[in-house]
Amino acid sequence: MRLSGPELERRVRSLFPLIVAVFAVLVDLAPRPAVGAGGLAPSLTLGVVFFWSVYRPDVMSYGTVFAIGLLHDVLSGLPLGLSSLALLFGRAVLMSGDRFFHAQPFAVIWVLFIVWAPAVEGVRYVAGSLLTGAFGNPATVVFQAGLTIALYPALSWFLVRLHQHVVQVPHAKP
Amino acid sequence: MNRLGRTSFVSVFVAPRAWVERLVFLALVSAAVLLLVLGRSGLNAVDDARADARDLLSPLVGLVAQPTRAWRDGVGWVGDHFALADENRRLRDELSELLAWQAEATRLQVENAALRDVLRAHRARPVPLTRTAQVIADSRSPFVHTRLLDAGRSDGVEEGMAAVGTGGFAGRLVDVGERSARLLLVTDFNSRVPVIVLPSRDPAILAGDNGTLPKLDFLPLTPSVEVGDRVVTSGTGGVIPAGLPVGRVVEVDVGGVRVEPSLDWHDLEFVRLVDVEPVDDLVALDDRRWRPLPGAGVIGR
Q: Residue A8: which H helix or E strand, with range?
């Protein structure tokens, strides 16, 4: 099956969210200044998955989310499937209101993220703790989620521009 | 009519799509759960597949880590220049203190060598250094304290090797692939390291609990451990070489004894990997211990 030029362009552009998410996983795991042995730092991956799940759920499908989680687990040493499970949960929660989110101002979306990010981290923490039998300090999860929430406006600003200039096909109908 | 028409369109085209998405969701959740179960079952195939995937991705991970490293080095360079005067003063103080210690150490080294000659005692071998590895990824998780290293079997790295960072013992290698390896930090819940407390020489097991201060387990019934005591690896079991600095005791109470690792967490960029003590040497050491010394009994007569 041969794809027409515009269709091929649309498909290539729609790959960018996955590429950005993969890059976010690699940056998240890159050694950087952090607090203590747990290496607390904000999670870019959560922000990226949330952003495109809200604004373009078609380019952040369940399969994409699963693959991103798996990549994270392979590299981080977490039990395989744990991050995939947490991100699938997060993606499913957003699925139910995807049309509602489109018309909302940024403040509403950020408030949603303030609830969503700790919930996804919480699922990963509870499932991971039950699985490994190692209950880490829950305060670290709260702290990490707080850092992620604080970073989201800047991340969202960058992703909006990336979406407008790279992902979205120019002159495409909304 | 119009409304009815729209409803039937939704029911025919949109609803099946939603159902397909639900099925995909359920299939992927099942796949994730299956992976979790297989991972827990300890199947070698899962571990091997994971190590292969990690080996494949490690060059990319190292590439992304480079700019963050450069940024950190840059910030560190600026910070160092601002703190130059204070640092210089501190180093001068430390130097004068260390010169006194150096004289004492030289005296003790000579005395130790003379006593070993008299006793014909086994001379401790220097810890064999295998290679230096770079930290390319950080687990960043409250329940897994590990780091990914850019060295694997093809570099002569083996499972169980001890890793030493700036300041002291960092942990040991638990999952070694061809080109990458996972370092289990001393603070991880699964980390157990045989240590001795100095100066009392009380043996113990340093157990991580995913906090920042691992605890000492299996101390003698009447331990003489105090806050400030040094903790080093004991080498018991022949898995981790003896004498690697681990940290200092910072808490002694009914809840247990806690140790603050001397490892500098902020400077965990490179680690030195040290080889496992060969078992043959331990056997030889044991033989030597029971062999009668030449001239034994002379003193008795």
A: helix A5-13
Which among B269, B199, B253 is positioned nearest to B228, based on CA atoms? B199
Question: In angstroms, rounded to a whole number, what is the distance separating the alpha carbons of residues B231 and B242?
Answer: 11
Q: Which candidate from B21, B60, B175 shows the least CB-CB separation from A26?
A: B60
- B173 beta partners: B183
| Contact yes or no for A88 and B136 at CB 8 A | no
Q: What is the pTM of this model?
A: 0.77
CA B13 – CA B122 distance, rounded (Å): 82
For B34-43, what is each residue's pLDDT tens digit?
Answer: 998 888 887 7
ipTM at complex level = 0.85
* pLDDT 10s digits, A22-40: 999 998 888 876 555 455 6
For residue B64, the distance in angstroms to the closest alpha carbon of chain A comes to 6
Q: Does B68 touch chain A (CB under 8 A)?
A: yes
**Residue range B116-143: mean pLDDT, rounded:** 76
Residue B294: CA count within 13 A, CB half-sphere: 3
A63/B57 Cβ within 8 A: no
- Record: contact B143-A144, CB cut-off 8 A: no
End-to-end alpha carbon distance in chain A: 27
**Which one-letter DSSP state was computed for residue B142?**
S
Q: Over B28-77, what HEC string results?
A: HHHHHHHHHHHHHCCCHHHHHHHHHHHHHHHHHHHHHHHHHHHHHHHHHH
Answer whether A37 sits within 8 Å of B212, measured CB to CB. yes
User: Is A135 within 8 Å of B143 when comparing Cβ atoms?
Assistant: yes
> In whole angstroms, what is the distance from residue B36 CA to residue A85 CA?
9
Min distance A50 CA to chain B CA atoms (Å): 17
